[in-house]
Amino acid sequence: MDVLLLLADGMLLSLQPLNLVMILLGVTLGLFIGAMPGLGSVNGVAILLPVTFLVPPGSAIIFLAAIYYGAMYGGAVSSITLGIPGASTAVATTFDGRPLAQQGRASLALVTAALASFIGGTVANVLFTLFAPLLASVALSFGPPEVFALMLLAFATFVGLGGDDIPKTVFSICFGLVLGAVGFDQISGAPRLVLFDYNGFLQGIGFLVLAIGVYGIGEMLWTIDQTRGDVTATTPKMTIKGMASDTKEAAKRGWKGTMIGSFLGFFVGVLPAAGATPGSLMSYGVAKMVSRKPEEFGKGSPDGVAAPEAANNSASTGSMLPMLTLGIPGSPTTAILLGGMVIWGLVPGPRLFVDEQEFVWGLIGSFYISNVAALLINLAFIPVFIWMLRMPFTILAPMIFVLSIAGGYAATRDMFDIWLIVLFGLGAFFMRKFDYPLAPAVLAIVLGPIAEPTLRQSLLLSSGDPSIFFTRPVAGPITIIALVLIFLPAIKVVRRMRDERKPAS
Amino acid sequence: MRVGELLTAGFLALLSLYLMWKSTELPIGYIAGTGPGGGAWPFWLSAIMLISCICIAINWWRGTSPASQSEDPVLDRHGWKSLIFVGGGIIVFVALISIISMYGAIAVFLFYYIWFLGRHGLILSLAISLITPVALFFFFEGAMQITMPSGLPFTDPVFNFLYEIIY
């Protein structure tokens, strides 16, 4: 009861004129920043951090959290309309969002993404409100073996569920992980994999460099080649009636993915260092696994859009939890938010809920209001995003190339990375021709820098004994499920070969 | 496609071998007291990449992948033409950035693509090629405060004029 009263107070606080303006402004800015390839919530929050010194700390954090919310909604826009995930959290959204857009059903994809994001955000807010201290203690019990097991599970969803060529999928995952290892060894600090002795590789290869190369250049070249430059399939129409029927269809065909994403995303988001990317990927995998029509995934299933979108929004709220209760950021964006709080004289940690009650509940109340504002603003802008898709392809394609290069530079500020984007784009074009799945590589480059140190720390803890991943109560079951998923396709192949031999004999 | 798939697998196998060799610059075994060496993670992952390439080659030999059964060329005449014109255009676009600035390169690339490749009208092509870089300038330099490459000094007067509007 106390919690509900505090929440009501918090909501009233966030509805004060200044805070409400901050929420609306933050969500709108976040939506457009998130929709821009190359820019995500991190850029938005970091760039606009100085603006917040003009308002009181409570309004400032509400503004930044609203940008975060808006950007998470906006990430889906570039994934669906342009086929370029602006942030790693939106990679899984391209799997089904882009095929839907190519079928002329971008409106359905965008509405599904908006509704799933809203429900994901709401579920996360409720869980956050009710179980914040409890979940924080659970998250703390996750050590390196548990986090590594979770990473293994994220990759297993690709291998175990894909109908694709398994060796090519495995190659893609490992390639992404190796690219993520370029630069410096995180533990010893020694230069590592400085390819062909180019000093540019010393700074590592960022996720965006690979993602923009693969999706912004490679996929576009492939589309031009496949369609002979005549892309006429995408002529989406936008009417009020059509949007209403899309909403109905999204609710009917995307509810399962939304529910899975909402709960799974929140749980993964709560874990320090895990964040929304593995959450969205796992939700996609689980949604496909439990679906009655798994064959529709990857071809334009609303559940395939709903699951990662619900998950990444839910995880964003979830990642605020360790930041506020423990002072541990769950994602790069929350790390900046944490920095902002420290600048404003607030000390995140267990005492924050006691010492700064008004601030904490004002922030939690603003999550609810931001979520509603983000949904309404997003739905209002869908016609604008759809209009973009109605452009002739010979105008849209060069625009995408330009946004890819300019967005890539904005994110990295290095011409070496721009040349890498072009190189990856051309490489991705040829790999795509031979059916190499490239999304696993893009996700692996994000998860690699989390997976490697946790593996090494775990093996150090156990003096090199890998049984540490099987004997711990949380890591054990996760590792076993991951291994089953990894070896499932191999078992299926052996069984199929045996069955083929039987009639012959 | 059939030959292409094998050649791609061969090239990727060589890349895997190179990455394995490069990883050995750091220790790849277990070091007592410090855990696995810095090269272990990329080395063993590259080894799995190599094994995957061998499996891809076996699948090619068994003819199980669609590409291994196809006698079509990897790229036909149109494919090569679009790759050279579009891919080449992107390479020239990136090369121009350090000469005529990001925004100048964007204008040239958009005009080349929309007018020459897209065969749209001259006025439409010019309008899009000029409005887009100006809009991007105000978005990146003004709103986001991100400075893009400004090219060689001869572009300074244009940038000075635009910066005066922002500041």
Q: What is the strand tally of chain A?
A: 2
Q: In the residues of chain A, how many domains can be counted?
A: 1
Number of domains of chain B: 2
Share of helical residues of chain B: over 70%
In sequence order, what are the helices and strands of chain A, one letter per element?
HHHHHHHHEEHHHHHHHHHHHH
Strand content of chain A: under 5%
CA radius of gyration of chain B: 25 Å
Average pLDDT, all residues of chain A: 83
Query: H/E series of chain B, N to C?
Result: HEEHHHHH
What oligomeric state do the depicted chains represent? heterodimer
Molecular structure report:
Chain B: InterPro entries: DUF1468. Chain B: This is Tripartite tricarboxylate transporter TctB family protein. Chain B: It comes from Yoonia maricola. The complex is a heterodimer of chains A (505) and B (167). Chain A is mainly α. Chain A contains 20 helices and 2 strands. Chain A has a two-stranded antiparallel ribbon. In chain A, helix 5 runs antiparallel to helix 12, helix 7 packs across helix 11 and helix 10 packs across helix 11. The radius of gyration of chain A is 22 Å and the shape is globular. With 167 residues, chain B is mainly alpha-helical. Chain B has 2 domains: 73 residues; 92 residues, no CATH class. Chain B has a two-stranded antiparallel sheet. In chain B, helix 1 packs antiparallel against helix 2 and helix 4 crosses helix 5. The longest helix of chain B is centred in the middle third of the chain and has 41 residues. Chain B is flat. The interface between A and B is large, with 60 and 65 residues.
Topology:
The complex is a heterodimer of chains A (505) and B (167).
Chain A: H1 2-14, H2 17-35, H3 41-48, H4 57-81, H5 91-102, H6 106-140, H7 144-161, H8 166-180, E1 183-184, E2 191-192, H9 207-227, H10 240-270, H11 276-290, H12 302-326, H13 332-343, H14 352-355, H15 357-389, H16 393-412, H17 415-433, H18 439-461, H19 468-471, H20 475-504
Antiparallel strand pairs in A: 1-2
Chain B: H1 2-23, E1 30-31, E2 35-36, H2 40-62, H3 66-69, H4 77-117, H5 122-143, H6 156-166
Antiparallel strand pairs in B: 1-2
